[in-house]
C-alpha cells in the first residue's frame, strides 16, 4: 500500500523573487567597482559574454546554488542552479522561507522541481496567449509532497548520486564527440596518417578526383518493388518516414520514386541542423527503400578503389560543404532546397587515399563512433533509471530508511 505523503502548496513554503529588467545601454563589458555580474538566462552556463551592472539590487543578488526558474520564452518552467549575479527579467528565484527551513529542504526542493510531476503541473499553468509564460504566482499554487525532513535529505542525497553519474557521463560523451570531430578533420584531410598492415605509416600522396570517378548515379524507379518510404534525417540517417514523421507523407503511388538499396547513398539538398549544405546518408537500416526524386542517389562504381565505410564518414564530416556552396546556384533555396544539379554534384573534387588507407581511417572513426554510442546508451539508461526512481521516491510509493 502506498504511504501517501503530506501535500503543501509551494507558495506556503517558498518565496519568489522576480528578476530585474536592465537595458543594454546600462550594462558594461568589463568589471568595475560598484558593479556586479548580470546574467542573462541564455548565458547562465557561459562566461563568453560577461556584462556588469550597478549594484542597485542587493535583495535580488543570486548566490551559488540558488534555484532559478525561467518564466518567459520557449524554456519557460525550466529550472537552473544560479551563479553569482543579478536575476534578469525573464526568470525568478525560488527560496525556502525562513519559517519553513525545518519543513522543506533546499536540495529536496531542487530535486522536486526537476521531476515529472512538476512538469505535468506546469503545463496546466502556461499562459496560452502569445509567448510561453509561467508566472510565479501560478507556480506558488503547485502542490509539493513533503515527507519528513530527514527523509527529504536522504531522497536528495540518493538522487544527487544519479545526477553526478549523469553529469560525468555527459562530460565523457561531449569529450568523445569533440575528439571524434578533431580526428575526422585530421584523418580525412591527411594531416594525420595511420599505420599500414606492416606497421609503416602511410605516406603516399592523395589524388584529387571527381566524385564521378568513384560513384555512379542511381536513378532506378521503384515500379512496385518496395513500399518502404524513407527520408533523410541529419540525426538518424535514412529512416522510415512513418517512424520519423509519425505518419506517411509520400504520394499514394510510389512507382515514380527512386528505389534505393542497402549500401547506396542519397543526398538531401535541404538544410537541417548541423548540415548547412544538406545531408548525405547511406541506407543502412533496411534492405531497400524508396526516396523522393529530389534526392541525388548514388553508389560506388568500383569496390576496388573505394571503401564505402570511409565515404560514409567523409560525407558526415562536413568537408563537402565548401564545394557544395560553390555549385549551389543562386535562388535555389525555394522551399528550403539548395539548387544543386546532379552534374555539378558529381563534378566536385575530393581527395582519394589508397583503399587500404581508407579502410584504416574508416576503422578508426567507426571505433570512435562505437565509443560515443556506448556512452549515449549509458547516459540514456542513467536518465531512465533516475526518472523511475524519482517517480517512486517523490510519490511515497517507495520510502527510504533514515538512520
In short:
With 403 residues, the protein is of the alpha+beta class.
Q: In words, what does this structure look like?
A:
The strands form 8 sheets. Strands 2-9-6-7 form a 4-stranded antiparallel beta sheet. Strands 12-19-16-17 form a 4-stranded antiparallel beta sheet, with helices on one face. The chain has helices at residues 10-13, 106-113, 116-125, 136-139, 149-187, 241-245, 308-316, 321-327, 342-347, 355-393; strands spanning 7-9, 14-18, 35-38, 51-54, 61-62, 67-70, 79-81, 85-86, 91-96, 143-145, 207-210, 215-217, 230-233, 237-240, 258-261, 265-268, 279-282, 288-291, 296-300, 349-352. With 403 residues, the protein is an alpha+beta fold. Strand 13 and strand 14 (237-240) form a beta hairpin. The chain folds into 3 domains: 7-146, Adenine-n6-DNA-methyltransferase TaqI, Chain A, domain 2; 148-189 and 357-403, Bipartite methylase S protein (Helix Hairpins, Orthogonal Bundle), CATH 1.10.287; 207-352, Adenine-n6-DNA-methyltransferase TaqI, Chain A, domain 2 (Alpha-Beta Complex). Helix 2 crosses helix 5. The protein starts with 6 loop residues before the first strand and ends in a 10-residue tail after the last helix.
Mind sketching the topology for me?
Blueprint: E1 7-9, H1 10-13, E2 14-18, E3 35-38, E4 51-54, E5 61-62, E6 67-70, E7 79-81, E8 85-86, E9 91-96, H2 106-113, H3 116-125, H4 136-139, E10 143-145, H5 149-187, E11 207-210, E12 215-217, E13 230-233, E14 237-240, H6 241-245, E15 258-261, E16 265-268, E17 279-282, E18 288-291, E19 296-300, H7 308-316, H8 321-327, H9 342-347, E20 349-352, H10 355-393
Antiparallel strand pairs: 1-10, 2-9, 3-4, 5-8, 6-7, 6-9, 11-20, 12-19, 13-14, 15-18, 16-17, 16-19
Helix pairs in contact: 2-5, 5-10, 7-10
Amino acid at each position: 500500500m502506498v504511504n501517501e505523503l503530506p501535500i503543501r502548496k509551494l507558495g506556503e513554503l517558498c518565496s519568489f523573487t522576480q528578476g530585474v529588467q536592465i537595458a543594454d545601454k546600462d550594462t558594461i563589458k568589463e568589471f568595475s567597482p560598484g558593479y556586479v555580474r548580470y546574467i542573462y538566462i541564455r548565458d547562465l552556463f557561459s562566461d563568453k559574454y560577461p556584462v556588469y551592472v550597478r549594484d542597485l539590487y542587493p535583495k535580488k543578488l543570486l548566490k551559488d546554488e540558488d534555484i532559478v526558474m525561467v518564466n518567459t520564452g520557449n524554456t519557460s518552467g525550466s529550472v537552473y542552479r544560479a551563479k553569482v549575479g543579478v536575476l534578469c527579467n525573464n526568470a525568478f528565484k525560488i527560496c525556502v522561507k525562513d519559517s519553513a527551513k525545518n519543513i522543506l529542504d533546499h536540495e529536496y526542493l531542487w530535486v522536486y522541481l526537476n521531476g515529472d510531476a512538476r512538469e505535468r503541473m506546469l503545463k496546466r499553468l502556461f499562459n496560452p496567449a502569445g509567448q510561453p509564460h509561467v508566472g510565479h504566482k501560478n507556480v506558488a499554487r503547485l502542490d509539493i509532497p513533503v515527507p519528513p525532513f530527514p527523509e527529504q535529505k536522504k531522497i536528495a542525497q540518493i538522487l544527487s548520486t544519479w545526477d553526478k553519474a549523469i553529469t560525468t557521463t555527459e562530460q565523457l560523451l561531449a569529450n568523445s564527440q569533440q575528439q571524434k570531430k578533431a580526428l575526422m578533420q585530421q584523418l580525412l584531410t591527411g594531416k594525420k596518417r595511420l599505420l599500414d598492415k606492416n606497421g609503416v605509416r602511410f605516406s603516399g600522396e592523395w589524388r584529387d578526383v571527381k566524385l564521378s570517378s568513384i560513384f555512379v548515379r542511381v536513378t532506378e524507379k521503384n515500379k512496385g518493388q518496395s513500399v518502404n518510404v524513407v527520408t533523410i534525417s541529419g540525426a538518424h540517417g535514412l529512416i522510415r518516414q512513418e517512424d520519423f514523421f509519425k505518419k506517411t507523407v509520400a504520394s499514394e503511388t510510389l512507382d515514380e520514386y527512386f528505389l534505393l538499396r542497402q549500401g547506396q547513398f542519397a543526398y538531401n539538398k535541404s538544410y537541417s541542423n548541423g548540415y548547412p549544405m544538406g545531408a548525405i546518408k547511406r541506407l543502412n537500416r533496411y534492405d531497400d527503400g524508396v526516396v523522393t526524386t529530389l534526392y541525388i542517389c548514388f553508389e560506388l562504381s568500383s569496390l576496388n578503389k573505394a571503401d564505402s565505410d570511409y565515404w560514409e564518414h567523409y560525407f558526415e564530416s562536413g568537408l563537402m560543404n565548401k564545394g557544395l556552396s560553390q555549385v549551389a546556384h543562386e535562388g535555389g533555396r525555394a522551399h528550403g532546397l539548395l539548387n544543386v544539379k546532379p552534374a555539378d554534384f558529381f563534378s566536385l573534387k575530393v581527395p582519394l587515399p589508397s583503399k587500404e588507407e581508407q579502410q584504416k581511417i574508416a576503422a578508426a572513426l567507426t571505433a570512435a563512433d562505437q565509443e560515443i554510442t556506448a556512452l549515449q546508451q549509458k547516459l540514456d539508461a542513467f536518465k531512465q533509471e533516475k526518472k523511475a526512481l524519482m517517480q517512486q521516491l517523490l510519490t511515497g510509493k517507495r520510502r527510504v530508511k533514515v538512520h
